[in-house]
């Protein structure tokens, strides 16, 4: 729906629009207007049939659920509800059906519609079935609303808001919001300054929402109404092409003004989320306070019957000061509130100037393997001794062992400094020490080892008294990685057995598990392979029956057999017919001279003479073997494993039913094909 200030311009716009859509294959029809000259410029087949202008322009056009009276250029309602007596059964289905007959897209009669919305919410709270008769209280409330809705036909609204291209700079949009314990609402008005200096206000649109079933405070409902208003103002401003600096929002809640004036991060999530969206639509400077008695949204939030609404000038025109254009925007009272404010947590940060000295063992992190670390240390020692002994520059086993002891001493001095000092002074270690139960001692090289009762045994020193290594250093990770590699990615027990032959690592099991878990090779090798789920067995496999009453047959071979004995013996090809019982899995073998039909029938008769006749017999219908062997391929081509009608007729005479599995599908004959 659109228009123009000038008739000729409107005619030109219509021609351009029709031509533009005609290029895409669209023909615009049913044109209607409140101007006779514009309608006469159109072809008769392009006009709407509802418009009549023999003497004057007249007619009613239905648009978006309301009627447009072309004669007086006003919107009207047309509601026709059947008569209902109090004795009639009134159900939830009837109420919803009657309410849906009244369509109010812009919310002009929102104060009356919200009463019906509140009633529907009550019906859901009462948990009334669709076709159940209502109680007397709900029925009386609905009948009162229903009788009042019939007055909607007496309401008409001007279509033209007195807006034109010449006064676009003087148009303002004013929106109001309010909330009650039952509902919250928003309503928008258009303020236009005419050429004579007077002002005109018009109702544009309104929205209402019932309060949620979960009880929330009235300030939160007021904030929800403000959010509803901000969304509605956005839609109206975009439709009317009004810039945001001429859009004003009003609320009678000082708490909402305080929430919008503060930082969103100060409030709890419910308030903060809505404040962020409201301020994204409109700046906080666009929100102002209005008195409750001058707030038209208060009517929509509380509800009003149509009989009273049609005489309510506050609803149709807005506040008196707005109608006169006497808008005073003052910020004398700055509202503040602590409602829904987050609790402030005081965090104290203590800065200390204590610089922790780094451990020397942290330099071991530069190496990826134990062998790399030990050889590097051995070369460093060789370089230091190069001036004294420049002949022996190769790395020996003794050099590697000496480098390992050096690393172990460094780690032990860092982790067990207190225990080592006590042992050097020949004192007992403390009771709360982690090494108390190990009875540690220092050997001749100053290495901390596990004590025990095996000092006089013939075992090796490392086995009798393992070297103690802590679990909070990099060296132990390199040792465990080396043990994992040496044991060929062995499991937990194998690695522990290997480690304990020389070392006593604290929390060795946990560290071993962690290393195995991080090993990519072990993860690949220990991955579980998914198995295919097998289908259900056929009934002949699961039902007990006489052996070979249900059987499958297949051929095996060829086999080379002797035809006679003595000199000049010759061999000939033979085959084996294999009969497998479907129930007991018993096997019967018959020697077959060739793959002809007569040979198979003879073999089948020998089989039935010994085992009894088969009720059902299964076999394949294609080649069973496709080998690379030349001789086997030639023999199989001669066989052609295709059973002709002669075999089938013979089986039918014996009372046997033949079943063929699908071609090239040996998996269907899994029992006898194996």
Protein architecture, described:
- This protein folds into 4 domains: 7-76, no CATH class; 159-323, Nucleotidyltransferase, domain 5 (2-Layer Sandwich); 366-525, Endonuclease III, domain 1 (Orthogonal Bundle); 539-673, 2-Layer Sandwich (Nucleotidyltransferase, domain 5), CATH 3.30.420.
- Helix 17 packs across helix 19.
- The protein contains 25 helices and 19 strands.
- The strands form 5 sheets. It has a 5-stranded antiparallel β-sheet, with no helix packed on it. It has a 5-stranded mixed β-sheet with strand order 8-7-6-9-10. Strands 17-16-15-18-19 form a 5-stranded mixed β-sheet.
- The radius of gyration is 49 Å and the shape is flat.
- The chain has 674 residues and is an alpha/beta fold.
- It is 37% helix and 16% strand.
- The longest helix has 23 residues, at 218-240.
């Amino acid at each position: 729906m659109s228009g123009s200030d000038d008739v000729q311009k409107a005619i030109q716009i219509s021609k351009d629009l029709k031509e533009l859509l005609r290029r895409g294959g669209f023909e615009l029809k049913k044109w209607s207007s409140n101007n006779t000259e514009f309608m006469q410029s159109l072809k008769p087949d392009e006009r709407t049939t509802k418009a009549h202008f023999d003497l004057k322009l007249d007619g009613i056009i239905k648009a978006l659920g309301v009627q447009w009276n072309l004669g007086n250029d006003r919107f009207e309602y047309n509601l026709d509800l059947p008569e209902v007596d109090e004795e009639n059964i009134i159900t939830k289905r009837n109420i919803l059906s009657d309410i849906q007959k009244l369509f109010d897209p812009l919310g002009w009669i929102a104060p009356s519609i919200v009463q019906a919305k509140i009633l529907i919410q009550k019906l859901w709270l009462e948990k009334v079935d669709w076709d159940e008769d209502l109680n007397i209280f709900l029925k009386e409330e609905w009948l009162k609303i229903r009788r009042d809705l019939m007055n909607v036909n007496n309401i008409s609204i001007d279509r033209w808001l007195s807006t034109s291209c010449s006064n676009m700079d003087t148009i303002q949009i004013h929106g109001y919001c309010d909330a009650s314990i039952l509902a919250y609402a928003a309503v928008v008005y258009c303020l236009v300054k005419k050429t004579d200096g007077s002002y005109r206000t018009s109702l544009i649109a309104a929205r209402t929402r019932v309060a949620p079933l979960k009880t929330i405070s009235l300030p939160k409902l007021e904030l929800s109404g403000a959010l509803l208003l901000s969304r509605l103002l956005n839609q109206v401003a975009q439709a009317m092409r009004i810039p945001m600096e001429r859009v004003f929002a009003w609320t009678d809640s000082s708490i909402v003004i305080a929430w919008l004036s503060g930082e969103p991060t100060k409030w709890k999530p419910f308030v903060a989320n809505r404040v962020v969206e409201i301020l994204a639509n409109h700046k906080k400077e666009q929100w102002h306070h209005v008195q409750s008695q001058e707030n038209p949204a208060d009517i929509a939030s509380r509800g009003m019957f149509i009989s009273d609404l049609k005489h309510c000038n506050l609803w149709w025109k807005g506040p008196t000061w707005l109608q006169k254009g006497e808008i005073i925007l003052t910020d004398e009272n700055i509202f503040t509130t602590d409602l829904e404010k987050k609790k402030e947590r005081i965090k104290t940060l203590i800065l200390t100037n204590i610089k922790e000295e780094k451990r020397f063992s942290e330099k071991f992190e530069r190496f990826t393997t134990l062998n790399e670390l030990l050889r590097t240390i051995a070369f460093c020692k060789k370089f230091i001794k190069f001036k004294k002994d420049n002949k022996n520059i190769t790395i020996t086993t003794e050099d590697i062992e000496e480098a390992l002891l050096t690393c172990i001493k460094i780690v032990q001095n860092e982790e067990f400094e207190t225990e080592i000092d006590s042992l050097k002074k020949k004192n007992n270690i403390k009771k709360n020490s982690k090494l108390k139960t190990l009875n540690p001692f220092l050997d001749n090289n100053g290495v901390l080892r596990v004590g025990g009762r095996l000092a006089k045994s013939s075992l090796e020193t490392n086995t009798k008294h393992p070297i103690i290594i802590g679990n909070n250093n990099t060296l132990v990770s390199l040792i465990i990685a080396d043990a994992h590699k040496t044991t060929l990615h062995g499991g937990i027990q194998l690695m522990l057995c290997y480690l304990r032959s020389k070392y006593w690592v604290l929390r060795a099991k946990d560290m071993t598990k962690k290393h195995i878990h991080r090993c990519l090779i072990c993860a690949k090798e220990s991955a579980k392979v998914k198995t295919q789920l097998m289908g259900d067995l056929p009934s002949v496999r699961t039902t007990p029956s006489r052996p070979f009453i249900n059987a499958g047959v297949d051929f095996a071979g060829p086999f080379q057999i002797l035809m006679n004995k003595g000199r000049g013996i010759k061999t000939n090809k033979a085959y084996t017919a294999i009969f497998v019982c479907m129930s007991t899995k018993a096997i019967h073998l018959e020697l077959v001279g060739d793959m002809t039909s007569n040979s198979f029938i003879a073999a089948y008769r020998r089989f039935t003479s010994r085992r009894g006749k088969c009720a059902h017999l299964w076999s394949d219908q294609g080649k069973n073997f496709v080998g690379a062997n030349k001789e086997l391929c030639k023999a199989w081509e001669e066989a052609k494993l295709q059973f002709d009608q002669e075999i089938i007729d013979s089986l039918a005479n014996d009372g046997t039913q033949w079943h063929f599995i699908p071609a090239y599908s040996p998996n269907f004959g899994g029992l006898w094909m194996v």
